[in-house]
Amino acid sequence: MRAVPRCVPCVLEIAVNTVERAVPEDRQKEAILAATECVSELYRMEPTPQPPKLGTEAQRTVMKYSEDLDPYREEKRRANERAAAVAQELESDLENIEDPEELLKKAAAAAIVGNTIDFAVAGHEFDLDELREEISGAGFTVFDLKPEDFRGARVLYLCDNAGEIALDKLLIEVLVEELECDVVVAVRGGPIVNDATREDAEQVGITEICDVIDTGTEMLGLLTTEVSDEFAEELSYADVVISKGQGNFESIPEEPFPDVPVYFLLRAKCEPVAEELGVEVGSNVALRWEPDEENVRRWREIVG
Question: pLDDT digits over 72-118, tens only?
Fold first, then answer.
C-alpha cells in the first residue's frame, strides 16, 4: 500500500521516540529535522512510497546521530522473555488439539495476537500480561489458512517484531512437526526499532528448530530491492511465504516479488491498514495474496 497523509505523523513520531532513546540531547533537534526533511522529500514522490519505506529511511537518518546502534535492545529482550513464558503455557493447549485445521488456526491466533507487541505504530498500545487471555479468545475477520496449502511445502516465514517472535515459534513448530514443512525463518538484517533480528531468534529458540536467515540489512517491512542474495535465493525457492505484521503487508504488494503465494498474518493496528484490508481496526487477519504479473516481471529483472 502507498503512504497516505496519516502515515507521515506516525513515521515521524516513531523517529522522535528513537531520537529520545539514542541521540545525545545536543543533537536531537538536528536529528529530528533531518528525519522530517527525509520523509518530506520521499512523500513528495508520485506515487508515494510505502509507509515502511518512509519509516526505514526516517530511522536510518536518525540513527546516523545515535550513540547506540540498538536502542530498543533491552525492551526487546524483556518482551522475548515474557512472550516466551506465555508461549510455553500455550504449548500444552496446542498439544491437546488433534484436528490439523483447528491446530493451525490456534497457532496462527497466537502468532497474530503476538503482533500487538509493537513500538512502531503511533498510538498503538499493548499489554504483555494480557496476551494469553487475548489469545484464548481470539477470532479472525479473515482466515485463509488451510493445512493442505502447507503440508510438505518449503515455507519462508518472515518475522516481524521481537516478543512476537516467541509466539511465532508455536506456529513454526506446527508447520514443521505436524504439517512436515521445510521452514526457513527470516529476520531483519540489523537492528531497527523493535523488529526481530537473529539475536531474538536465538533467544526464543527458533534457531533450534529450523534454519534462520536475515534480509541482509535493517528495514521496516520487506523492501526486496535491498535484500541480500541469500534472501533473494530463498524467496525464489519457496513454495509459500508466511508474512507477519503490518510492515510486511504495507510493503510487499508494491515490491518486485516472485510467483509465490503469500499469507499475511497481522493485527490491523491503524486506520490506513484497516481500510486497505476492508476490516475494522483491531481485526485479526490471515489473508492469502498472490503477486500479479507486474510484481513477477520486476522480480525477474532484479534477480536476472
Answer: 999 999 889 988 988 988 888 898 899 999 999 999 999 998 777 64
DSSP the chain: ----TTHHHHHHHHHHHHHHHHS-GGGHHHHHHHHHHHHHHHHTSSSPPPHHHHHHHHHHHHHTT-S-S-TTHHHHHHHHHHHHHHHHHHHHHHHT---HHHHHHHHHHHHHHGGG--SSSTT----GGGHHHHHHT---SEE---GGGTTT-EEEEE--BTTHHHHHHHHHHIIIIIS--EEEEEE-SS--TTB--HHHHHHHTGGGTSEEEE-SS--SS--GGG--HHHHHHHHH-SEEEEESHHHHHHGGGS---S--EEEEEE--SHHHHHHHTS-TT-EEEEEE---HHHHHHHHHHH-
What's the predicted TM-score (pTM) here?
0.94
